[in-house]
Amino acid sequence: MNAREIRPGIEWLGAIDWERRLFDELIPLPDGTSYNAYLLRGSEKTALIDTADPAKREELLEQLDAVESLDILIVQHVEQDHSGLVPDVLARFPDAAIYASPKAVPMIADHLGIPEERITAVKDGETLSLGNWTLEFLHAPWVHWPETILTYLHEEKVLFTCDLFGSHLATNDLFAVDRPRVHEAAKRYYAEIMMPFANLIQGHLAKLDPYEIEMICPSHGPIYDDPTFIVDAYRHWVLDPPKNLVVLPYTSMHDSTRRMVDHLVGALTERDVHVERFHLSRTDLGEYATQLVDAATVIFATPTVLVGPHPSIVSVAYLTAALRPKLRYAGVIGSFGWAGQAAERTQTLCASLKAEWFDPVFAKGAPKAETFDALDALADEIAARHRELS
Ligand code: FEO
């Protein structure tokens, strides 16, 4: 795909990755993704912000055939889907000056083999002139690496944000015109990538308050020509209290746990508690993470395997804690054959979760009348706690 003009002098470069279905060998990409770079043709200097994934080397280099000279290469983030082609860009433009945050300098050396003395470290708030245009660099650590910067183009009121506000969405819409689709993709992206750093993002949103922003250009997904759309969405995801929602990841080997899940979902439904259940053999973990953005409660439902929880519950419990959602309450239900510690071990996996734990409900063998009574009591407790949320 050729470069695309966003505004006079500002071009989208990079690649749309229509076919990629997994990121970091972990994150499902049901809608592909894109790697956006931006070319700024100032009156005196030309700058490139970020590059693209090495898998898209030929596309970016072909786009750069139309660039006579490059004075400045800004590395906002060192993860290789944006920085991986920095060495190729420098091979094409050996005199280009590299700008990055102080934390990024050694990381660029480590990851890309570029000598530190080749890179200029920029302070928070430092400016750089392209002639008619002024760039300001804003340090924004932990979105989602420690070294990230944002770049604000003052005269055009355009903010370049790398991963922040991005979405894994392959589309040839240059701008976010299909808002429901972009909102869904951006929320999933927030859940998977940004949610562990929600407290810091709250600070970054406050830092951006004084800036007049007409356009946000992220490094994944479409550009926002109405920035309030995505900034307001981030405010909700970061700041809103959790909702009346239970997420219920489960697996079942011989149907005991599945029957307990069915009963608990029915009991919660009768008590007007919304439930999202996720059978882990079939679940897209991105969908699970997305529901964690708003959920007040997680209930893990697991059979007992080798004394502890089923390995699929081990995995999702670890992930849940690592994503640091706003969950207020948590619980474990399930079954065991003769003995076990599935509940205790699940709680240990989630030790960093700041949630209050309900008493576990476990059945020895098949669930019985007293098991269902205990699940009804759990549903009562969840419903009562959720009523206190509003
Ligand atoms: Fe899109 Fe953190 O890289």
What order do the helices and strands come in, and which of them pair?
Layout: E1 4-7, E2 10-17, E3 22-23, E4 27-28, E5 33-41, E6 46-49, H1 57-64, E7 72-74, H2 80-83, H3 86-92, E8 97-100, H4 104-112, E9 119-121, E10 127-129, E11 134-139, E12 149-153, E13 158-162, H5 179-194, H6 198-208, E14 215-218, H7 227-239, E15 243-250, H8 256-270, E16 274-279, H9 285-292, E17 295-305, E18 308-309, H10 311-323, E19 329-336, H11 342-349, E20 356-357, E21 361-364, H12 369-387
Parallel strand pairs: 6-7, 7-8, 8-9, 13-14, 15-16, 15-17, 17-19, 19-20, 19-21
Antiparallel strand pairs: 1-2, 2-5, 3-4, 5-6, 10-11, 11-12, 12-13, 17-18
Helix pairs in contact: 5-7, 5-9, 6-7, 8-12
Describe the structure.
This protein has 390 residues and is α/β, with parallel strands linked by helices. The chain has helices spanning 57-64, 80-83, 86-92, 104-112, 179-194, 198-208, 227-239, 256-270, 285-292, 311-323, 342-349, 369-387, and strands spanning 4-7, 10-17, 22-23, 27-28, 33-41, 46-49, 72-74, 97-100, 119-121, 127-129, 134-139, 149-153, 158-162, 215-218, 243-250, 274-279, 295-305, 308-309, 329-336, 356-357, 361-364. It has a seven-stranded mixed β-sheet with strand order 1-2-5-6-7-8-9, covered by helices on one side. Strands 15, 16, 17, 18, 19, 20 and 21 form a seven-stranded mixed β-sheet that branches. It is elongated, with a radius of gyration of 24 Å. The model has no long low-confidence stretch (mean pLDDT 97). The chain binds MU-OXO-diiron (FEO). MU-OXO-diiron binds at residues 77, 79, 81-82, 144, 163, 219-220.
